[in-house]
Amino acid sequence: MKTEYKIIVDLIEEKTRVLDVGCDDGALMESLKKNKNVDVRGIEISKDKVQTCVSKGLTVIEGNAELDLKQFPNDSFDYVVLGQTLQAFVNPEIVIKELLRVGKKAIITIPNFGHWKVRLNLLIKGTMPITESLPNDWYNTPNIHMCTIKDFVKFSKITNFKIFKSLALTNKNISNINNSNLFYKNLFAELGIFLIEK
Amino acid sequence: MNIKENIKTLVIEKPLKLDCGKTINNFPLAYETYGSLNKNKDNAILVFHALTGDQFVTGINPVTKKDGWWSYAVGPNKSIDTNKYFVICANVIGGCMGSFGPSHKNPDTNKIYGTDFPVITINDMVNAQVNLLDHFEIKKLFSVVGGSMGGMQVLQFISNYPDKASTVVPIACTSSHSAQNIAFNELGRQAIASDHNWSDGKYLSNNTLPDKGLSVARMAAHITYLSKKGLQEKFGRKLQERDALKFGFDADFQIESYLRYQGSVFVDRFDANSYLYITRAMDYFDLVKQFDGNLSNAFKKTKAKFFVISFTSDWLYPTQENKDIVIALNAIGADVGFVEIKSDKGHDSFLLDVPDFLKTLKNFLDKSYLER
């Protein structure tokens, strides 16, 4: 299992209701079902991936998070998970609000644009960074709102949501992010994982 | 051969109060089954047919001698696997393949009903068919499945009998018949009524058939089942067995010839009055109104697992109308999956060889069956 998924599974309590937004091929959903006995639903934009999920016996609706979260009532899930897609939305602020309306808590993971390789890429080459986790050119990337771990922490203060837990993934190692190490985590972590609340 | 020999019929003795106010009893319900019911009686799937379908879902239809209407989806190892499931399908009441309908004789007058037959609804159809569960001593169906009008019956069934199915698969349908669809149905009905031979519905007593009218109704409806792209790709402006236009009103174009053919074969197997009654039932279908404007309430009592399927090129029951069902279910936290299948084959996609659809339906049913 991807380390990212392992961290998310660990963050989620047993027998809860979970919505996986952008559930991809359902790998995280399967693992949540197996390890945490949760009632898990998914939303996925790709028809092929929805069909893959159905073939795994997962409950998934084809849809777009920006349009389709609306149909879920307030607090209908204990957790809403958004894995590495916040940066692809037209309006991330509205999406986060929707996640926290539909879910009591939300788990958001973001590819860290503050990683030293990204910074170096731009500094040396003078072109938009292309890395393993960000493989697209500027003109064809779905990631229109990239941010850094530091940006996300700042964003939480501006838009008034609480970060309950923040974790950094660096070379498959998991560590906590706090005020004193934020500078380093923002430089070295590939991924930030945040458990947030209203 | 006597057609009736090939038709299994259950006589429903229990009175059924119809939405129109009349009560019927001792009426025939024709049905067919495929596969076998297991010992626990928990592998049964009730399939509901669409407007012009019948109980002969798959294999050779013993009356028309053609393939059953859902042969692509139902059969051994197919989406609805008859090696695994016990498939039941009944001809809807109002229909013309053995179930109580307008071509039957009114025992009180000894005359064929014609338009004296009571107007029936989707709700009435479903309430008639639920008797099949008692007949087979099935407490709970594994699934209820149907496309188009069959999908409407699926929705009505689970709303009326929330504990009687574990999974629910409405395909290419709606919870409330749209103005556009009512309009198309009215076009068909008027085509039939305009045929002199229809004789206010008394054609069977007069030994005539409104086959021209019924054929035009079918031609018009058939266009709505296809997509513009599908038609263009299949027919384009291709000419029918000629090299040039004939400057007349014969079928110059292949599409004309195709539609005429569709119309002509339809009249051999379908009753014009049944066409009126069944299209009326579809038009009257409004599950949203039945629940005072809140569709979610239709599904509040059921714990069933839903899977809604629509098709990209279906403009008769477009994705949004199918999605409204999904939205209503999500609003009450029901277990619902949804996929829109990519296909150029229009509304008819659910009846045709559309591999993504057939695979997805199979996966949903088989996985749900394992986890039941």
Report on the structure:
The complex is a heterodimer of chains A (198) and B (372). The two termini of chain A are 30 Å apart. With 198 residues, chain A is of the alpha/beta class. The model of chain A has no long low-confidence stretch (mean pLDDT 95). In chain A, α3 (47-55) links the parallel β2 and β3 (59-62). In chain A, 35% of the residues lie in helices and 26% in strands. Chain A has helices spanning 3-11, 27-36, 47-55, 65-68, 92-102, 116-125, 149-158, 182-188, and strands at 17-21, 39-44, 59-62, 77-83, 103-111, 162-170, 173-176, 191-197. Chain A contains eight helices and eight strands. Chain B is of the alpha/beta class and 372 residues long. Chain B has two domains: 3-178 and 286-370, Alpha/Beta hydrolase fold, catalytic domain (Rossmann fold, 3-Layer(aba) Sandwich); 181-279, Rna Polymerase Sigma Factor, Chain: A (Orthogonal Bundle), CATH 1.10.1740. Chain B has eleven helices and 14 strands. In chain B, α1 (122-129) packs across α3 (149-160), α4 (179-194) packs antiparallel against α5 (211-225) and α5 (211-225) packs across α7. The chains are: A alpha/beta (198), B alpha/beta (372). The A-B interface holds A 17, 41, 47, 50-51, 54-63, 71-73, 76 and B 305, 307, 326-327, 330-333, 335-342, 356, 359-360, 363-364, 367-368, 370-371.
